[in-house]
Amino acid sequence: MRDSLTGACNHFSCSKGATGMAGTSGGRPSICPTLLYADAKAAIRQLTEAFGFTELSVFGGEDGAVTHAELAFGNGAVMLGTKGTGGVFDRAMTGAGTTGVYVVVDDVDAHHRHAAEQGAEILMPPTDQDYGSRDYMARDLEGNVWSFGTYAPETAV
Which InterPro entries would you find in this protein's record (predicted)? Predict the structure, then answer.
């Protein structure tokens, strides 16, 4: 996905055709941990070489940083990138640790409305992304960042 503020790819996706939208059919997970690393390239090497993940996609910025990557393991996936890219997720994660969670939902607006009514801190309102997804971002009571949207990475390789 391209960050709506900077135009750079960020943690959601700039994936192969970005055809994976809401639902979990076709090997698409409904929850994807999202991770930030100081050295995302080294993390990808370790996750694939030491832990057996399969690299699905890796996108880099002009500065060589990994702006977004997707790795699969079994029927699950993780999305990751480099800390300090300045995207919405990177800024939201400041002081929150290195992990966030992305959850696939069918109706982003209804989900957002309910979360807001329940007092959730909304970090980014529902936003149409250039790859076809619609998503929003929130912070829970302990400071964890949650993203909810219609994009679901394809994990079948």
Answer: Glyas_Bleomycin-R_OHBP_Dase, Glyas_Fos-R_dOase_dom, VOC_core
**pLDDT digits 0-9 by tens, 35-44:** 888 899 999 9
| CATH of range 31-149; options 3.10.180.10, 3.20.20.10, 3.30.310.50, 3.30.420.10 | 3.10.180.10
Write out pLDDT tens, residues 106-120: 899 999 999 999 988
The model scores a pTM over 0.70: no
Cα separation values, 144 from 3, 53, 154, 155, Å: 20, 25, 25, 25
> For residues 113 and 110, what is the distance between their CA atoms, to the nearest angstrom?
5
Whether the Cβ atoms of residue 72 and residue 53 lie closer than 8 Å to each other: yes
12, 124 Cβ separation under 8 angstroms:
no
